[in-house]
TrEMBL record:
GO cellular component: cytoplasm
Protein name (database record): Peroxiredoxin-like 2A
Cited InterPro entries: PXL2A/B/C
A GO MF label: antioxidant activity
Amino acid sequence: MMLSGFFRFGVWQNFFRAWKSGYSGNLEGEGFTLGGVYVIGAGGQGVLLEHREKEFGDKVILSSVLEAAEKIKPQAS
């Protein structure tokens, strides 16, 4: 995304949402890497949840993470 990411409306919305809720980052690191969240089940269950940031500040829905984590079945030993 590099510089074009700063011109996207959604990025600025996410920035102001975080700022209003009191979040302040440390501004360290490269700052151009988008993140993601994966919930991976045991054994052959595979990926139960995948969330990739499409633009800076995308947030995963916490209830989705909890729901996916509840689907993890313990692997028989």
